[in-house]
Amino acid sequence: MRTARRSPHGTRCENRGSPAHLQESGLAVFGVDASPAMIESARHAYPGLRFDVGSMAALDIVDGALGGVLSRWSVIHTPPRELPAVLAEFHRVLAPGGHLLIGFSAADDPSHPTQAFDHTVAPAYRWWPGHLSALLRESGLVEKARMARRPEPGERRQFQEIHLLARKSAADRGNAS
């Protein structure tokens, strides 16, 4: 995809308005999801946007092509042993100076960096924010900001929501190894 501006990339096709909002902001947007059903749902909800079936650990994108990656709740179904490969792939596709915004549910206890929980679709995992931040550093991404949202009483899941903003160094022109 050729655009005048670097394109952000969504790694989970969701129907929360994020893709359309980003496109309306003038960014070239596309999404990737492992689930063909989610891809069809996203294509129906956003017919003017591109959505492809794919894996977060093996994106069909050239090295350094993206200015940003948006990964909102994309990693909750990633088994803990596989998360480093996903983060390394995000690092690979980001341009030098590119950003990753990753959202996830937080684990309750730092002594348990990941906690499994039952999810409607498939087993899911919550991550201790400091642990996920360390995994980002190991993949070559540096946390720049963190936002936490506590659940409201009565919400279905009483998990704290975390968003980490990480950046690939502007001097980093290689892959994470």
TrEMBL record:
SUPFAM superfamilies: S-adenosyl-L-methionine-dependent methyltransferases
GO biological process: methylation
Pfam families membership: Methyltransf_25 (PF13649)
Protein name: Class I SAM-dependent methyltransferase
UniProt entry keywords in alphabetical sequence: Methyltransferase, Transferase
InterPro entries: Methyltransf_25, SAM-dependent_MTases_sf
GO MF term set: methyltransferase activity
Highest taxon, organism lineage: Bacteria
